[in-house]
C-alpha cells in the first residue's frame, strides 16, 4: 500500500514536471530564436533534456516499487538509486555539451557581429529562473515525503537549471548593455 501511494505521488510530480518542462522549453526556444540569444537557445535545449531525465526517474521509481521475486529476493528498491546515478551522469553530459558549444561560440565570435539579444530573451530567463526554482521546491517536498532518492536528484536537477538560467540572465543582460560576447559566454556557463 505504501509503495503504491509513494509511486503515485512520484508519478504525479514527474508528469507535472514533464508538462511544465515541455512548455518552458518551447517558450525558451521561441524566446531564443526571436530574441537572438544563444544563451536562451542553450537553456531551451537543456530544459528539453530534462524531460528525458524525468522519464528516467519515472522508470526508476516504477521498477523500484515492484515486489520481491525469485531473481530479486530483497526487492527492487536499488533501481531507484540506479535512476539517480543515470540522472547525475546525464546532467554532467548535458552540462559538458552545452559548455562545449559555449566555448565554441566565445572563441569563434567577434563581438561586433554577435547579435544583441532582445528583451523577450531576458524575460524568458527571469521566467525560467522562477519556474525552475518552484519546480525544485515542489519536487523536493514530494521526494522528502516519500523518501525518494531519484525524485530528490530530479529536484536538485531543477535547482541546477534555475542556477543555469541565472547565468543566461546575466549573459543576456550583459549583451544588452553593450557586451555582446556575454550572451555566448552565458551559454558556456
Structural class: mainly alpha
Mean pLDDT: 81
Order of helices and strands: HHHHHH
**What fraction of the residues are assigned to beta strands by DSSP?**
under 5%
Shape: elongated
Low-confidence stretches: none
Largest sheet: none
Give the N-terminus to C-terminus distance in angstroms.
44 Å
Q: What's the helical proportion of residues? A: over 70%
Count all strands and give the number.
0
**Rg to the nearest angstrom?**
19 Å
Q: Work out the oligomeric state of the chains in this entry.
A: single chain
**How many helices does DSSP assign?**
6
Task: Report on this structure.
The chain is an all-alpha fold and 189 residues long. It contains six helices and no strands. The radius of gyration is 19 Å and the shape is elongated. The mean pLDDT is 81.
Q: Which descriptors would you attach to this protein?
A:
mainly alpha; 6 helices; 189 residues
Short summary:
This protein has 189 residues and is mostly helical. It is built from 6 helices and no strands. The longest helix is centred in the N-terminal third of the chain and has 33 residues, at 2-34.
